[in-house]
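It would be a great kindness if you could assist me with a short task in structural biology. I am sending you one protein, given as its amino acid sequence and as whole-number tokens for its backbone shapes. I would ask you to consider whether the tokens describe a fold that such a sequence might reasonably adopt. The full record is reproduced below for your convenience.
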Amino acid sequence: MGAGVSGLAAAWSLSRSGWCSTLHEKSRGLAGRAATRRRGEHCYDHGANFFRLDDAGIHELLTEHLPANELVEITGDVWTFDAQGNISPGDPAHNAVSKWSYRRGIKTIGRLLADDSPHAEVRRESQVTCIDKQDDGWMLVDAQGQAHGPHSILLMTPPAPQSMHLLKDCPAVTAELLAELGRINYHRQFCFVLGYDSPALEHRNYHALLNLDGQHEVSWLSFEEDKAGHVPPGQSVVVVQMSPAWSSPRYAHEREGLLPEVMEAVCRLLGQDLPEPAWWDSQRWAYARPMNALRPEILQKAEAAGLFFAGDATVGKGRVSLALRSGLEVADRIKARLACQ
């Protein structure tokens, strides 16, 4: 399993029950798209922007089981806009539910889960390249040719196309499962981060703007200074998620060449000219969010063979709370299987 939010949540739950697990994470960081970067005194969430605590189980996990002293509630509502850039207040019911991040960024959730999982080993920069199943369990081979295993249970948390690539040469994996993994498509998305030494907007009544119809160049725009600890007083950091329709044909383009186009779209949406940012950053997300979900009946057949899945592809949406929930739920099913062995 990887060390994204769902994999870490599963490892945490297994660890609490005394079960050992190993997470193979190909990058140096934790928590996947619950991602944060730092630049001097600035801290900004450039993947998932926030999470909610309206799920009782997630509320208990993040406020009772894990340290909650770094949690910060985000001020301001999420407003919406259409293809023409017409802005209006968002859904009152949705805005009534508090939005949260951490003082040092949303990726803190990964560190807290890992630190509270004494029976889980996280192997960073461990890229699995081959998976096979033998009589005594699942075997994994990394990019350096080192074998890991055997493991009685294998939990896959990467995006579905990556899982399919890893499993395609394993004789124990059915053609039906591979076809199901190949059915899951993802949106590509470009994120741009604009840093200002003064407030980007003098007056605004919202934290973020969300495009509902998918027809605007901008998909999401938010202000990191609404999160305590993220931005020095008097400064501004604007996070701009461009739409998949805009991002996909430009995915391989040089970022510097795209910045003027991004600025033009942002200024048009906000209805005013913004100065050139003091600094900027960007991130390409190849698997920003899934367009569809793996079917439960196919996953149940895989689980009978000791192969489990969790993450965005199992729920069909890119939400931190849903990824956490999928990790906790798959851990319960894994524990039930292990108890019967």
